[in-house]
Design brief:
Elements (H helix, E strand, L loop, with lengths): L2 E3 L5 H7 L2 H8 L5 H4 L2 H4 L1 H8 L6 E5 L5 H10 L4 E5 L2 H4 L20 E4 L12 E7 L16 H11 E12 L10 H4 L4 H9 L4 E6 L24 E7 L3
Parallel strand pairs: 1-7, 2-3, 2-5, 3-4, 5-6
Antiparallel strand pairs: 6-8, 7-8
C-alpha cells in the first residue's frame, strides 16, 4: 500500500503524539543547541515517525554530515540499538574539521553511534541494518566529484545489500521541478523525485510512500538551495522504499 502523509498538527503537538521512542529522542537534553535550533525547519518528530524506527533497530545514516539525524536515531533506537554514521572519504577528504577515525565513537553522549569513514565504493556496515537513511545528499551521489568509477545503480544495490529483509531505505532531498531528472543537480543541488524513485526501484526496492511535511509550495524550485531567500525552506520530498522479505 502506498502512503502519503501530511502534517496535520504543529510540530510540538505531533511530538507529543509521536511514538515514545521518537518523542524521547527529540526531547533528549543532550542534543546540542545547534541541533535543536534546526528542529523547526527539519520536523524531526514527524520524519522519524515516518521512518518507523523502533527501539533496538540498527540504522545506517548515509552521508551523515555533522550527525544531526545520527543523534536523533541514536536516541530512538536506545542502548540496545546501533547507529552507523557514514561519511564517505569522497566527502571528507577536503574537510577542514577533524574526521573521527573509522570505528570510533564520535559522540560521548550517544555511545551507540559508530563512525564509518571509507570510500563510498567500499561501503559496508558492520552488520545488516533495519534502516538506511540519507538526508539532502542523494543528489550529491550523481555529482562529478564522485569520480568516473562511481555508478549510482551499483550503489543502490549496495544499499539494498546492507539491509535486512524487510528493511527500509529512506531518501530525503531537495525537490527539482517535475520532469527535470538530473539536470539541476550540479547547478541547483536539486533532483527530480521521479528520478530517485526510478533509480532506487531498479535496485529491487519497493516504493512504499512519501511524507509531505517538508513540502513548501512557495518554493518554485528555480533557486539554488543555498540561496538565502530559500535556504532551510526548500521544497523537500521524503520517500520510503522497502527491501522485500
Amino acid at each position: 500500500m502506498l502512503v502519503t502523509l501530511t502534517a496535520l498538527t504543529s510540530p510540538l503537538a505531533f511530538a507529543a503524539d509521536a511514538p515514545k521512542n521518537v518523542a524521547a529522542a527529540v526531547a533528549d537534553t543532550t542534543r546540542p543547541e545547534t541541533d535543536t535550533k534546526r528542529d523547526a525547519d527539519r520536523k524531526p518528530a514527524e520524519v522519524l515517525a515516518f521512518t518507523g524506527v523502533k527501539t533496538g533497530d540498527k540504522v545506517l545514516d548515509l552521508v551523515a554530515g555533522g550527525g544531526y539525524f545520527s543523534r536523533l536515531f541514536a536516541g530512538a533506537v536506545g542502548p540496545t540499538g546501533a547507529v552507523y554514521m557514514f561519511n564517505p572519504t569522497e566527502f571528507t577528504k577536503n574537510s577542514k574539521n577533524p574526521v573521527p577515525a573509522n570505528g570510533s565513537k564520535p559522540d560521548p553522549a550517544h555511545p551507540n553511534i559508530t563512525f564509518v569513514n571509507t570510500s563510498i565504493n567500499e561501503l559496508k556496515a558492520p552488520e545488516k541494518v533495519d534502516i538506511v537513511w540519507t538526508s539532502q545528499n542523494y543528489h550529491d551521489l550523481h555529482k562529478t566529484y564522485m569520480g568516473e568509477g562511481f555508478d549510482i545503480a551499483k550503489f543502490n544495490k549496495v544499499v539494498f545489500d546492507q539491509l535486512k529483509p524487510g528493511g527500509t531505505f529512506i531518501v530525503l532531498d531537495h525537490s527539482a521541478k517535475a520532469g527535470t531528472g538530473r539536470a539541476d543537480i550540479e547547478s541547483l543541488h536539486r533532483i527530480d523525485e521521479a528520478t530517485v524513485k526510478k533509480e532506487v526501484e531498479a535496485a529491487g526496492f519497493k516504493y512504499e510512500g512519501s511524507l509531505d511535511v517538508l513540502r513548501n509550495k512557495s518554493d518554485d524550485r528555480s533557486a539554488k538551495v543555498f540561496d538565502p531567500a530559500i535556504r532551510s525552506k526548500t521544497d523537500q520530498f521524503v520517500l520510503k522504499f522497502r527491501k522485500p522479505n
